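This section describes the prediction task in plain terms. A model, or a person checking by hand, is given the sequence of a single protein chain and must write out its three-dimensional structure as a string of tokens. No templates, partner chains or ligands are provided. The sample shown here is typical of the held-out split.
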Amino acid sequence: MKAVLLALLLAPVLAVAGAGAAPPRAEFFDDFSQPDLDALRASGWVLREGGGHPGLPGARFSPQQLGLAGGLLTLRLSTDGTPAHTTLAQLCGPRKFLIGTTTARVRLRDTPGSRDPIIQSFFLASPLKHDYDPDFSEVDFEYLPHGGWGEPDTRLYGVSWHTVRLDPWQSFNQASILPGSFDGWQWLTVQVEATRTRHYVNGRLIGEHTGRNVPSQPMAISFNHWLAAGAVAGAAREYTFDVDWVLHVVGRTLSPQAMRQRAAALQRLGRDRVDTVPDRGLTSECNL
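The expected answer:
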């Protein structure tokens, strides 16, 4: 069973709609202005390397699939359709985020004519210690521009997870699905409270999830770009998507508009990175 802390239930949940609200007590912000990957690591990010879930068995993650230029983080996926020649990208922050609001500005990308089942993801997650781990926590956005997972349609998911078994696959979650293309810049916001989560796309509420699907453990902010089963072997090809910035505000339920306004205010002040969120002494494993 997931533990719910009384302190979180008793704490007031504040909804802030305007730019004139007082600055939050604790927040994390990064607009990816670092000059190189070494500076990204020094900022506290984990650049995933090696194999493992998600993606095709035999594919690998490489830090070289991450790029920084012009204030953008780019995640590349390279493949010829075979696992041995598929290289993926993932970036994970420190594991210290739970109750609060998180927004990222991302540029999702479609590739007309491609049917490669790529997944472009923004999420927060804790480690999965074992199959059906009852304390597993994850909230995510996953975009399938070319279809995948047994369905041909382009779609965007907002999901809150209870638990999962990876092999053979069995998952327990609540998912909200938006059909159609989301090619281009999007604002993705997730609110995590003690008893519910809410997912927003460009300020539009797409789903509210409750019960055991609500996170209970500190999570790491993460982005990844991976390939599901179903790609056709052939010529080498590459896909990318971009992240402009990410913002997390601790312990407060803020509107998507308020999050955008706060990010804009930090950028006007030249604050390209802010981290006043207390460390929890937890390892960001970056392996899921």
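For orientation: The CA atoms of residues 96 and 281 lie 8 Å apart.
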